[in-house]
Design goal:
By secondary structure, the chain is of the alpha+beta class. The chain is 41% helix and 8% strand. The chain folds into 2 domains: 2-103, no CATH class; 122-253, Muramoyl-pentapeptide Carboxypeptidase, domain 2 (2-Layer Sandwich), CATH 3.30.1380. Strands 1, 2, 3, 4 and 5 form a 5-stranded antiparallel beta sheet that branches.
């Protein structure tokens, strides 16, 4: 069990701060469910053979790349142990990153895609639809048109979100004041890749607090082909819409891009 926790922690999936103590508690189970969601596995928190395989394969991929680049991560055995952690820290130090020893999004990109053609990491936040992927922007415009036809005043509140802003949101409720609002670090949200936006209904010039209007808005977004955050399992996010092209954020950090 401790092996499992060390792997999840090393891959930067310890969103809720579970202790690496070999005890399969509620926090560990929640982290496993999030991991299973990411890889379209059965999200039941049970560490089945398929979950183990995907988890260990991801650790091996990190170990292989570290070794290939001259960082001694040890045998690619799928265990994120002390040797691999030390190699990650050295890699991070050499690349100007905080030496946490976990493969956070910035570390993943430096390791798997060190020379990205389109570096999203330093783009500023924007509420403009042009900051989104062209197809996602097209869906957003269709969505806004549909909401108008249904007599809703819907406005975009966030389009592209910078990685730095995402990190600030991730810190909230953890080591900064406020409530937890996201499980995504900078680079690990679809907002950080132009594949997501937030919207909200307005009434008399002010954002509505009517949950039913958010639900109606979400259902209209689904009609145009968007995935709505109101259906999320971990953190329900009524304002959130995304279109992912079947990619998860690790794909994007590894350099994979939508074919469209």
């Amino acid at each position: 069990m401790k092996w499992l926790q060390m792997n999840v922690n090393g891959l930067a999936l310890n969103y809720n701060g579970f202790a690496i103590d070999g005890v399969f508690d509620t926090k560990t189970e929640e982290a496993i469910k999030n991991f299973q969601d990411r890889f379209l596995l059965n999200s039941n928190g049970i560490v089945s053979t398929s979950t183990w395989k995907v988890l260990n394969d991801n650790v091996r991929a990190v170990q292989n790349l570290l070794n290939l680049n001259g960082y001694r991560a040890g045998a690619p055995d799928g265990w994120f142990g002390p040797v691999t952690t030390s190699a990650v820290r050295t890699f991070q130090s050499d690349n100007g990153l905080y030496p946490s020893g976990i493969v956070d999004p910035r570390t993943r990109q430096r390791l798997f895609n060190p020379r990205p053609k389109d570096n999203y990491e330093y783009r500023p936040s924007s509420n403009d639809l042009t900051s989104l992927h062209p197809y996602v922007a097209l869906l957003a415009r269709r969505f806004l048109q549909l909401t108008q036809e249904n007599n809703l005043d819907i406005r975009i509140t966030t389009a592209f979100r910078s990685w730095d802003e995402e990190d600030r949101l991730f810190a909230q409720g953890r080591w900064a004041p406020g409530q937890i609002v996201t499980n995504a670090r900078g680079g690990d949200s679809y907002h950080n890749w132009g594949l997501a936006f937030d919207a909200a209904p307005f009434e008399n010039g002010k954002m509505s607090t009517d949950t039913q209007k958010f639900i109606q808005m979400g259902q209209l977004g689904q009609q145009v082909g968007l995935q709505w955050g109101g259906t999320f399992k971990s953190i329900v996010d009524y304002p959130h819409f995304q279109y992912t092209f079947g990619l998860n954020t690790w794909d994007l950090l590894n350099g994979v891009r939508p074919a469209w």
